[in-house]
Amino acid sequence: MPDSDSRSSQHSDEERADARTVVVPDRVYKAVTVFSTLFSVVSVVGGFIVLDTATNRASAPLSEVDPVLALAGLGLILVGAVTYAFSTRFRAAGMGNAKDESDERSNNG
User: Is the pTM of this model over 0.90?
Assistant: First the structure.
């Protein structure tokens, strides 16, 4: 039987998860999803291109690698990843969280 501490920690985890989500109107959700995904993809691909340029297609010796350009490429990749992760916090009104639903069977067979 679970004690009150484990139940309170479960509730606090759920409350924190709810506090991190932002419920917005459907049009805003669609706009945020489309543009943040577009920005993230362009940023990550651009970051890899810049990183590839800095390392001369990963064939330059370490002494010839441009560290400023390499850090800029890594920064672009990081910005794209953070943007995408932040955009997943948005939910349209009426959307549930897939983790909370249990309508699928637990066995795969």
Answer: no
Are 49 and 2 in contact, with CB atoms under 8 Å apart? no
Spatial contact of 3 and 70, defined as CB atoms under 8 Å apart = no
Q: What residue has token string 């920005």?
A: 39
Number of domains forming the structure of the chain = 1
Residue 50 located in a structural domain: yes
Distance, CA of 33 to CA of 51 (rounded, Å): 27
What residue numbers bound the domain in which 47 lies? 33-93
Q: Mean pLDDT per 10-residue run, the chain (109 residues)?
A: 54 59 92 96 98 93 94 98 94 74 61
Separation of alpha carbons 73 and 67, rounded Å: 10
∠ Cα 14 18 23 (to 5°): 160
Q: Which residues contact 108 (CB under 8 A, 6 or more apart)?
A: none
